[in-house]
Amino acid sequence: MKRIILIFLCSAGLSANAQVTTLTLKDALNYALQNKAEAKKSKLQIENSEYQIQEIRSRALPQISANGNLTYNPVIQTTVIDGAGFGQPGTTIQAAFGQKWTSTAGVSLTQAIFDQAVFTGLRAAQTTREFYQINDQLTEEQVIERVANNYYSVYVQRERLILLDSTYANTTKVHDIVKGQFENGLAKKIDLDRIVVKLSNIDTDRQQVKNQVELQENALKFYMGMPIETQIEIPKKEFEAVPAALTEVPNVENRTEYQLLKKQEELLVFQKKAVQAEYYPTLSLSAGYNYIGQGPEMPWFAKPEKGVYWSDFSAIGLNLHIPIFTGFGTRARVRQADVEIRSIQEDMKDTKLSLDLDYRNAMTQINNNMVTIENQRENMRLAREILSNTKNNYLQGLASLTDLLDAENAHQEAQNNFTRAVLNYKIAEISLIKSKGELKTLIK
């Protein structure tokens, strides 16, 4: 009975592992955005930015702390004073001030009243949040682009494998025909050997493509954050090439890459203002309340009967700091911040050119690949007709085996060229969608 149960459980496990997940492009992208490490980490950066903002805000709030100490003075310092104050004019008295034991406990408060650096930090807090939100959007777009490109690459490799399987099956039929002819003395040994070599080469190509399919699938699953052992299937309709509609040149300032640089520029401006704040005076309020105990023995829990006395004291003050000369250090840091701002402005100009170039290149590739697809579709149709006619002629003795093998090679090459053309089109299509800032439309 145990053996039967074990066999059943193993069969159920194998059946579960054999399940295939049908994966559309939208499914793949949504899965990646929910599971890929980069997408998760960008969300964590947004969460962490809230804590950074709280840290900045804390500088404008009161800073309260409690403190305490216990001090033992084995040797009390003495002070030499004029005896006139003690009714002994003309003499000098060496007196010890203090007690062997001293303990203090208290609470202190500090509140910034005017600090330009704090005010600048508070103004930069919102920009910091927006920076991480845009960065999260950019990360998602990068994940979408990478997964989409690998998704189509997997499809192409699978199509190549299907083509090779079909070619292998067709060539096997020809092999059987040639073998029968050879056995009946109607074909030469060299013809049979050539078809055997052809089959062997096709089978070698199949094994190589199978390996490439597995490697490409594993790469896709990795970029999606999907377990490698998952079996996936891609619907054929996902690989249709549809002519792209011509649109106006997109405004590159709406692109996420440019917006992120713009936010970086804003943060650098705030950084410069924070450095400039060192020129301004600062004003703060401080207050403290303390309780002190002194005596010849440890003051804790001791009473006046043992010579230990406790008393409280308090102080409230305003602290004003006016910078006068800092050795030109502040000026140097301001100029460094200004250089960083000018540097990122150059990056923004270069990014504008790059994004515009991406759009125009994508449109060129789209148009060229669409023409190539139509040409290769016609070539594939002609190659199919030639192969069919050549096969009939061969069976009727009107064509040589060389003609048949050449026709098969031409047909296989035409199909491969068509598949590659469609892949190039889909990759160019992703580039076009990216250049328009519309990658998110792929998940809607």
UniProtKB/TrEMBL annotation:
Keywords: Cell outer membrane, Coiled coil, Membrane, Signal, Transmembrane, Transmembrane beta strand, Transport. Residues 1-18 form the signal peptide. It is found in: Cell outer membrane. It holds the Pfam family OEP. Residues 363-393 form a coiled coil. It comes from the Bacteria. The keyword Cell division does not apply. Its main location: membrane. InterPro entries: OMP_efflux, TolC-like. Belongs to the outer membrane factor (OMF) (TC 1.B.17) family. This is TolC family protein. The lineage of its organism: Bacteria, Pseudomonadati, Bacteroidota, Flavobacteriia, Flavobacteriales.
